[in-house]
Design the sequence.
């Protein structure tokens, strides 16, 4: 029996420290909701989680870009619907002006409306969306994933000859009305092609948007497996380590009391 070295107390103190550390980790996990509260808990898991989190942030950015591109296309289509209405009326006026019962003054009135509608179409061609021209014919690239891959949207050009040819037309005469009708038909055909292109872009961007949403959900689930604490399991661990700390404290007190038995030998 020795006094200077109390092996039982040293062993109890070491075990108590280990239990206390585990209890502290369990408390941190339960309070934070995360299994990894410091890099020492799972360095590899933390690295993977950081990459997943960064990718999800990039997905959010790509989703915003896609949604804005859809809004851009929808704005274009809204204007083109009105351009279609104008062209339909212009085609009607071109036919009305070919009525042999109409006088020159009647055709002049038709032509006045025809020219006003043509100016409206020309004005639509100058519109923009947040400073980006809607109808200058430039193709635009949209980032559609977390790696910044691009989808090219076809440009719509209201300055093409299919539309601008109308500016030189007049339905004030029978011959002019015939020529104008032919040009309006060309513009209507071009408008139909442009709106079909817009529809395809909106549909494609919608699919990219759904794909991004699905990918983010999957990445969130994967990240949850790494980072999120299982509350039921961790509560069990907390109870276990709490009991070990209490019992360890009691046993350390008993171990520290053992050397006092030496006093009985000295009496």
Sequence:
């Amino acid at each position: 029996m020795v006094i200077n070295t109390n092996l039982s107390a040293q062993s109890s103190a070491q075990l108590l420290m280990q239990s206390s550390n585990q209890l502290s980790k369990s408390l941190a996990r339960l309070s934070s909701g995360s299994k990894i509260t410091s890099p020492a808990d799972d360095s590899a898991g933390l690295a993977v989680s950081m990459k997943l989190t960064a990718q999800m942030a990039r997905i959010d950015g790509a989703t915003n870009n896609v949604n804005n591109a859809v809004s851009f296309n929808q704005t274009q289509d809204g204007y083109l619907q009105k351009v279609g209405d104008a062209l339909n009326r212009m085609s009607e006026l071109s036919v009305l002006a070919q009525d042999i019962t109409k006088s020159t003054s009647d055709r002049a009135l038709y032509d006045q409306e025809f020219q006003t509608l043509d100016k409206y179409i020309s004005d639509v061609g100058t519109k923009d969306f947040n400073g980006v021209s809607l109808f200058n014919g430039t193709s635009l690239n949209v980032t559609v994933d977390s790696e910044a891959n691009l989808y090219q949207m076809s440009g719509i050009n209201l300055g093409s000859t299919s539309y601008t040819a109308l500016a030189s037309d007049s339905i004030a005469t029978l011959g002019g009305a015939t020529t104008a009708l032919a040009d309006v038909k060309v513009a209507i055909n071009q408008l139909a092609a442009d709106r079909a292109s817009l529809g395809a872009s909106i549909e494609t961007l919608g699919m990219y948007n759904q794909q991004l949403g699905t990918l983010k959900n999957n990445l969130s689930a994967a990240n949850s497996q790494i980072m999120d604490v299982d509350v039921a399991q961790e509560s069990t661990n907390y109870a276990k380590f709490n009991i070990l700390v209490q019992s360890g404290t009691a046993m350390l007190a008993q171990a520290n009391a053992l050397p006092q038995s030496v006093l009985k030998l000295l009496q």
In short: The chain has two domains: 7-33+229-266, 43-226.
